[in-house]
Design a protein that fits this description.
single chain; alpha/beta; 7 helices
Length: 242
Amino acid sequence: MTSVADHYEAHLAPVYLWMSGGVDAAFARGDAEIAALLPHLATGTTAVDLGAGFGMHAVPLGRRGYSVVAVDSSTLLLEELRRHAAGLPVSAVQDDLLSFQRHVNSRVDLILIMGDTLTHLPDQRAVQTLIGRAAESLGPGGQFIATFRDYTSPLAGDARFIPVRADENRILTCFLEYGDDHVDVHDLLYERQGSVWQFKVSGYRKLRLSPSWVGGALRGAGFSVRSEPGPSGMVRLIATRA
């Protein structure tokens, strides 16, 4: 099974903007989510965006006056982020998510881990480590906001085949296989090269995290937690540091 970083760098990163519906649509969604979650942003406050990708949330935060450290493993996606964040107070960092503290010099106001990034961590211990480091890095009243998919109830049969996006030149579908504490995600990509369709497949592993377990880990680290529906069928947890 390919590592998450390798899977994204070689397979998903080159088509990630396309998967997201294009940069303008993605930034519009990110900005709308930020506006709904954080309606009273104060210019000059600080944020860390974990798994920032091409900047779907980091760029809207920067445009609203936040100083952002955007962390991701993908060279290609971070190049896109730097291009779209030119002139904004956004610093793009290539590193492991658990190492974000080495890029933060003081306490921050906001830590985001959006999309389905939390499930990319290798095990529950790593999730607990991240939550503990977030608690150390946030000032009083600071927020840790996560969105992720709840894979605890496995899909069966044909429901395990999930169409992601398709157009006249590209088709992306994923297939899920469930283990006890993880789900193996196989991304099946067809791309047209002239008159020939080329097929690429790559797989990586995600954690099966229940919202109740993640919420309990956050409360154990000193957060108050609110759970609500997130975008695209995900769960959103909003945790506030005491």
